[in-house]
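Input chain follows. Return structure tokens only.
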Amino acid sequence: MADNSVSSLVELKEVTFSYPGSSGDRVILDRVSLTVPRGKVTALMGASGGGKTTVLRLIGGQQQANRGEVLFDGKNMASLTQTELYAARRRMGMLFQFGALFTDLSVFDNVAFPLREHTRLPASLIRDIVLMKLNAVGLRGARDLMPSEVSGGMARRVALARAIVLDPELIMYDEPFAGLDPISLGTAAQLIRQLNDTLGITSIVVSHDLEETFRIADQVIVLANGRVAAQGTPDEVRHSTDPLVHQFVNALAEGPVKFHYPGPDVADDFGSPAASGRKGRS
């Protein structure tokens, strides 16, 4: 049961996370602290590889922080038993990038899947719930279609119906606007805002689309270089004087975020014996 005395549904406290690599651990998050308030739409933004999807995985318990705490409704995800973790996940919905529908199941069966997997509801009630959720995303009439028979925008809406079918308290969206045409993109953004307000849920949206994301978000968090570069309302972030945030918001080629991945000096790299040896073998 939700502890409504906790104003934030999700909180990261001094979280550090890294992926192991052949040349040493690659730090993705470095002492990151952020809060996701209840009932609001929070956008996670920043350059590619900045740790946005990693934050979603930490919240869902797929990954565990090396240091710090990831709290969901006041409870540390790392300290939960397997039973408690599964119970927490049932209170979350996830919209994966590009939908991730089961290709061999119909639209109806995709949305019904979580209900059949996690509840013992009778088939008649499952049918009514699925049709209600499909109706909420405008696709009740598409229930008998297969994923291969719907457009990319429709597939994303089917996935959204599946994400809300268990009435979660938190929905996490991983790049919900990627690859959508302007009409589908606007529809998806409007749905996220409407569902958040109508259902009284909390939403976290990972996105690179500034215009639509700023339009629907209550707060924006910009991650960069493993840390929180900015956190505030869309207007506050848009007018930030931080050079990195300014570069990101205005889509500037020049700034703290460089085009080239860090590497050896060009003269040293192309003039090294190893480079010459590779060139000779090609």
